[in-house]
Amino acid sequence: MEQKLCLHCDKGIIGRADKKFCDNQCRNEYNNTQNSISNNYIRKVNRIIKKNRNILEELTPKDKSIKVAHKELAKLGFSFEYFTNIYTTKADKTYYFCYEYGYLDLGSNYYALVYNKSYLNEE
Question: For the chain, first and last CA: distance in Å?
């Protein structure tokens, strides 16, 4: 019978027939290596969305919407291609949200910023 080799370090494996790694350290290092690329991408996207949310939170009053220029948002580092969800109204207006803070393209390089507290009550 052929001896199985560790998937991480290629050492011989002693023990159960279905064992894939020689020890926990090799198993952890192998899995961390496999997941690091996708985890780095997820961390990057989450960082951008969180930054967008913080910018919207800073600019948006809780009780009303305001109008803001595109260049002001861009100057603060807002990334328009990253958001958590889209809401389209019956009037066919599309709001883009970063969690509970959103924006609506008004045209002419202006956006309406809104706060939707109903998202905080959903579970």
Answer: 54
